[in-house]
């Protein structure tokens, strides 16, 4: 082999070794990047809240009827949170305005509407067929439709318990009632108040002044004053403001709160308050609207048993035995062992309306059109 061939061979060998070394020590190829994780599925949009509207006959600050309804509305908001959205219209007259306001509520997308006074019954009944997807609830009425039902509270139970206290606390044996509108509900309360008083004091008589409205403080004050001037020393009411209690406070007489606890409006005059708690029913109706179980064409009438009626803030000077009797009656109403409208019951014309040991059913109570014995006068428009 020539020297040239040797040199060429060595160069080739060195080149091969160098190449092998470079391959052995060189950078490894980077592994492929992992595939990107699939994008998370977009969150489903939160369901729209159920829109609920309330039509009120008086102002939310009336201290009585409307105040009680609005407290229950606020309790709904607290209970259901962002699942619902509530609104209300106050001072809605029992007239053509009611139809306009309630129709507007339905048009604005409210799917559950509460009409909270007797005079809204016909307007709601007229509107309901035009909004089949809206659930209408009417307080104190008796007419229903496929998408409209009724609810009421047995206010007469609270009136009866107040009567027990009144019968004991009166000194003149004359009780006075400021009454709103002569419908069975109000007549039933006047009578039950009187029956309660007679259960502890058979000598009592009851005088009534009608104001022909639910919320009219000046007229309520005038009526209360008239009753006190006529000898009544304990006043009861079926009106919505605390005007009667205030009038009694000013005259040194005694009176009751109605629908809500009115103690603060006349602390010296206040004997107790017969109150309504609309919360349990509003909660039930809202749950049913949300879960799809709501059904129209029905009605409920709740009282002490369901937690809808109570007597609260009984005055300290009411005798202990009367407080015990009220507590016993309340317990009996709750468990069904006490019946207020049990015979014999006679009207103020001497006619037996409920025979001895017989008990009135709800149909009878729902159509009352007479005063019981002890209530003076005549029902406006009555025979």
User: From the 3D coordinates, which CATH architecture of the largest domain would you assign?
Assistant: 3-Layer(aba) Sandwich
Number of helices: 11
Helix/strand-derived category reads alpha/beta
Helicity level, as a percent range? 25-40%
Number of domains: 2
The helix-strand sequence is HEHEHEHEEHEHEHEHEEHEEHEEH
What do these coordinates show?
Helices cover 38% and strands 18% of the residues. The protein has helices at 3-25, 65-80, 96-107, 121-127, 155-169, 184-198, 217-229, 243-251, 279-291, 320-335, 362-366; strands at residues 50-55, 84-89, 112-115, 135-139, 148-153, 174-179, 205-210, 234-237, 254-259, 270-276, 299-302, 309-312, 345-346, 352-354. Helix 7 runs parallel beside helix 8. The chain folds into 2 domains: 50-154 and 279-305, Response regulator (Rossmann fold), CATH 3.40.50; 155-275 and 309-366, Response regulator (Rossmann fold, 3-Layer(aba) Sandwich), CATH 3.40.50. The chain is α/β, with parallel strands linked by helices and 383 residues long. The chain is globular. It has a 6-stranded parallel beta sheet with strand order 2-1-3-4-5-11, with helices on both faces.
């Amino acid at each position: 082999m020539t020297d040239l061939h040797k040199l060429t061979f060595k160069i080739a060998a060195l080149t091969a070794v160098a190449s092998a070394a470079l391959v052995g020590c060189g950078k490894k190829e980077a592994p492929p990047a992992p595939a990107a994780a699939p994008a998370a599925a977009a969150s489903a949009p939160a369901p729209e809240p159920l829109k609920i509207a309330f039509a009120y006959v008086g102002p939310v600050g009336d201290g009585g009827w409307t105040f009680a309804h609005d407290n229950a509305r606020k309790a709904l908001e607290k209970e259901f949170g962002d699942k619902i959205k509530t609104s209300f219209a106050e001072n809605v007259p029992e007239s053509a305005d009611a139809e306009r306001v309630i129709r507007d509520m339905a048009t604005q997308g409210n799917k559950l509407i509460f009409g909270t006074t007797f005079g809204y019954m016909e307007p709601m009944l007229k509107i309901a067929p035009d909004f089949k997807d809206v659930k209408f609830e009417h307080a104190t009425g008796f007419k229903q439709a496929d998408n409209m039902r009724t609810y009421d509270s047995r206010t007469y139970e609270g009136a009866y318990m107040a009567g027990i206290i009144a019968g004991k606390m009166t000194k003149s044996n004359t009780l006075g009632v400021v009454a709103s509108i002569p419908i069975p509900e109000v007549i039933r309360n006047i009578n039950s108040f009187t029956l309660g008083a007679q259960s502890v004091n058979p000598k009592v008589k009851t005088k009534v002044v009608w104001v022909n409205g639910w919320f009219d403080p000046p007229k309520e004050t005038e009526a209360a004053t008239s009753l006190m001037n006529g000898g009544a020393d304990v006043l009861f009411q079926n009106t919505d403001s605390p005007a009667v209690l205030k009038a009694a406070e000013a005259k040194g007489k005694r009176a009751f709160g109605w629908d809500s606890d009115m103690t603060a409006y006349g602390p010296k005059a206040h004997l107790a308050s017969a109150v309504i708690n609309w919360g349990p029913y509003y909660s039930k109706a809202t749950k049913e609207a949300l879960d799809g179980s709501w059904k129209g064409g029905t009605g409920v009438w709740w009282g002490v048993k369901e937690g809808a009626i109570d007597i609260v803030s009984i005055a300290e000077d009411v005798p202990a035995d009367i407080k015990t009797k009220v507590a016993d009656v309340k317990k009996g109403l709750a468990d069904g062992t006490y019946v207020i409208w049990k015979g014999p019951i006679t009207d103020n014309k001497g006619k037996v309306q409920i025979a001895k040991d017989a008990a009135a059913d709800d149909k009878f109570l729902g159509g009352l059109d007479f005063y019981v014995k002890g209530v003076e006068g005549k029902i406006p428009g009555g025979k």
